[in-house]
Write a structure and sequence with these properties.
- InterPro entries: Peptidase_M1_dom, Peptidase_M4/M1_CTD_sf.
- Pfam families: Peptidase_M1.
- One of its GO terms (molecular function) is metallopeptidase activity.
- It comes from Mobilicoccus pelagius NBRC 104925.
- By secondary structure, this protein is an alpha+beta fold.
- It folds into 3 domains: 237 residues, Sandwich (Immunoglobulin-like), CATH 2.60.40; 91 residues, Neutral Protease Domain 2 (Neutral Protease, domain 2); 126 residues, Neutral Protease Domain 2 (Neutral Protease, domain 2, Orthogonal Bundle).
- It contains 10 helices and 26 strands.
- The strands form 6 sheets. The chain has a 9-stranded mixed sheet.
- Strand 21, helix 3 and strand 22 form a beta-alpha-beta unit.
- Helix 4 crosses helix 5.
- The protein is globular and about 65 Å long.
- 51% of the residues are buried.
Length: 483
């Protein structure tokens, strides 16, 4: 720790606490407009509305002047459908890929009704020397089914430098980005706590119900710009001199991503969807090419799967990344050529339907979002996967396996991608034509998206929507995707 770290952290802590108090009370006006007290119908789009009793989250980040750390305060309220005697949160930045790059998320304290709870952190796949990915907090008493529980959490976030990871920062571009970088409530109605461990290879393990992001406040140096998710509601002076607080809100998301720093924000409309593209200010990014490819990809996906699930879409081009990461209403990309890598742009945008709108247990059933996103990319921006029968498609009959299965393979990351992404997409492409009527398969997929909107799907849910398509069902069962 540097000699001034203690003073800096105390200052950040005070600012974060002050930010949340303003966030909760709403006593300080935001410019240009104040957040509405309820969600207008237009904000949830053309899909069925989310559950009225979904969790509600208020989240505040205070980012350091050097963009290498943040302190946060979270207020989360939910009504579990069964008795609970503890709270469980996931701290996914402590997964191997990000933790080894220097990123760490530490929960400092949790209170319920003002009473501090004891904390127990479990590694759950985190590498030695880093905080765990699972935090348990026993409650003073067990709750009744349906009883509302409200917790307040304080946490610290350290950001690894110049890394190719979903959470990190670039010293050269003076930018930071962090996704799933807060204590994520691990409750799943009907199943209980989601406690699957992280694994040391590519891919996400997140499982989260949708929640109402009532307010997201990001306080950053006043010269910085911020991209996040949901509707931007304006700015106000931050709690510390020289800072600005940026506010966002979203009616139904299951995760949150933030990009902050020396950015250029370019806004454009794609058939009613407001797209904001965040790019490093001093890098030569082809904005016109991005606008063109995002427009093409979104229109192709809407034609196949229905309206864009979110009225606002935030896309960040990151200097420290070379791939893409999906979030509800947002995505991170490396500094790629969007035309040459149209498949990647399309893949991450497809996740707005497959993961954002319809979620899944990414540890147990990763194919439900990754295979479908790859399938969607092949329909809209085909690659060699659609043309080359010699391309390795992984392990036959294992498309539906969970991440724990692939962790045991000799080359887990390569086998996982080949089996789940490529093999799963190939199975879906074959299933689409197996009954001789691709349009009927397309309609069944749209029904699946409609029926499971804002929910967590299982392979059984998909199987029921495909049950009348015997050929498609057979193909997916042989691939190991359906029960």
């Amino acid at each position: 720790m540097r000699p001034d770290d203690g003073r800096r952290r105390r200052s950040l802590r005070r600012a974060a606490v002050a930010g949340l108090m303003v966030l909760l009370t709403g006593c300080t006006p935001f410019l240009p407009t104040d957040p509405p007290t309820s969600t207008p119908p237009s904000e949830v789009g053309a899909w069925p509305p989310p559950a009225a009793d979904r969790p509600v989250v208020d989240l505040a980040f205070t980012v350091s002047d050097s963009l290498d750390a943040a302190e946060g305060v979270e207020n989360v309220s939910f009504s579990p459908d069964r008795t609970v005697c503890e709270l469980v949160f996931r701290t996914w930045p402590n997964s191997p890929a990000t933790a080894r790059a220097g990123t760490a998320l530490r929960v400092v304290s949790i209170t319920v009704e003002g009473v501090p709870l004891p904390l127990r952190t479990e590694a759950a796949g985190a590498p030695a020397g880093s905080p765990g990915t699972l935090v348990r907090a026993p409650l003073p008493r067990c709750t009744r089914p349906g009883e509302r529980v409200t917790a307040q959490l304080w946490f610290d976030l350290a950001l690894g430098g110049d890394v190719d990871a979903r959470t990190g920062r670039s010293t050269e571009a003076r930018a930071a980005w962090f996704g799933t970088a807060f204590p994520l409530l691990a409750w799943v109605d009907g199943n209980g706590w989601a406690t699957s461990p992280a694994h040391p290879f590519l891919g996400e393990s997140t499982t989260s119900e949708v929640f109402r992001l009532r307010r997201l406040d990001v306080t950053a140096p006043q010269e910085a710009l911020v991209a996040a998710a949901g509707r931007f509601r304006g700015t106000r002076p931050g709690g510390r001199p020289g800072t600005t607080t940026h506010r966002f809100e979203a009616p139904a998301v299951r995760d949150v991503a933030v990009t902050v720093g020396d950015l250029t924000l370019t806004r454009f409309d794609v058939d009613g969807t407001r797209v904001t593209l965040a790019t490093p200010r001093h890098r030569n990014v082809d904005i016109a090419a991005w606008r063109d490819q995002v427009t093409t990809s979104l229109r192709g996906l809407v034609t196949r799967f229905g309206p864009t699930p979110y009225p606002d879409l935030w896309l960040s081009v990151l200097p420290g990344d070379n791939s893409g990461v999906e979030y509800p209403g947002a995505a991170q990309f490396g500094d790629i050529d969007p035309h040459a890598d149209a498949w990647l742009v399309t893949h991450e945008l497809a996740h707005q339907w497959f993961y954002g709108l319809v979620g899944n247990d990414q540890a147990a059933h990763p194919w439900l979002d990754e295979a479908f996103a790859t399938y969607a990319q092949e329909l809209v921006a085909p690659t060699s996967l659609s043309r080359d029968p010699q391309e390795w498609l992984g392990l036959d009959g294992h498309v539906g396996e969970g991440r724990a299965f692939f962790a045991k393979q000799a080359r887990p990351g390569r086998t996982y991608v080949a089996t789940v992404y490529r093999g799963g997409a190939r199975a879906l492409l074959q299933a689409r034509v197996a009954d001789g009527n691709p349009e009927e398969f397309d309609e069944a997929v749209r029904t699946y998206l409609h029926d499971l909107a804002h929910d967590l799907a299982t392979p059984e849910d998909l199987a029921r929507r495909l049950s009348h398509l015997t050929g498609a069902t057979r193909v997916l069962r042989e691939a190991g995707a359906l029960p």
